[in-house]
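To: structure subgroup
Subject: Chain for Friday's discussion

All,

I'm putting the inputs and outputs inline so they're searchable in the archive.
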Amino acid sequence: MRRLLVALAVVAGLVGVGVASALGAPPAKRADRALDRALKRLVAMPGGPPGAIAVVQRRDRRKVHAAGVANARTRAPMRLRKHMRIASVSKTFSGAVALALVDEGVLSLDETLGDLLPDLPAAWHPVTLEQLLAHTGRLPDYTASQGLVDGITASPALAPPPIELLGYVAGEGLIPGDGYIYSNSDNIAVGLIAEAALGASYERAIGAKVATPLGLRRTAMGVGALLPRPFIHGYERLGSGALDDQSQEIGWGGWAWASGGIVSTPGNLNRFVRAYVGGRIFGGEARRRQFRFIPGAHSHPPGPGANSGGLALFRYRTRCGTVFGHTGSIPGYTQLIGATRNGRRSLTFSVNRQMPDELLPALRRAQVRAVCAAKAKQRRR
């Protein structure tokens, strides 16, 4: 129970510089060494994560950078093919499914919840699919509800059907005002829309639209509290400072579902983000509208550099250049994926602790090093 309470105390974290020209990017070897040093510093700092792994790919050259351990008990290292919870990076998968269906003409970004999910509260009906993907629909966030805390406490491994997650806030209207508000409820609704449009489960939709076409054999919605082996253990720190393994405490595949429940590997995420940002999953008007950004919008935690929000995508402008991707945070894990718009340069950045606010500046500095490595100049063959 003590370990469960630690997880519940950080459940709210689920909700997951100027621009330099390419000529200002550092040489590849120097950027790689700087990233290696940054990862070592991150895991060595007081309260830091036990391990960190970054996958950087420049065109066809992929390099894995790692520091620390994936398992604090056995001292097993961080590895490319080990499973982990990807937290709110899962929102890019629901975005990919929805935007692929828009590209195919099955859905429209201008359709509303009243059109697509009429059984949801009438006050929510005017919200469009585009607003859900952009976090501008202002749905109340179910992860901030007492109902979620009570539900996880009563049944950590087994969650109710996804529609019941929205039931925790069904009595609430839209959040007053206008503009951007990050809400996990948005992506639960997107997942339900995908199911209604396809007449199949959201899990099957991920397989059909994303995982199978891209060959993501180690990526799927989590089932129960257990993780596929081998996996990167995720930790939190108790008041004493001791590490507490949160990897298999809660069935996030059900409790977070389309907003944060997917399990993947660093290698699979690298392949995914190159395709997702690079336009291999969908194109046309869906892709054009995805790349309209709201300055200052960010997920939790914020990504590196100056953040702006698009449709299931964020823009990160750093001193080494710009990448597009998403962050994520869930008990035991903090994540970042990113790629250039053509998908030819990419990075994933994973640590096995949900990073507290006081450590986020150090995390973001290390993530900038990963962006610099991805954007680095390399010699031609």
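Points worth raising on Friday:
The two ends are 57 Å apart (CA to CA).
The chain has one domain: 17-70+81-231+244-375.

D.
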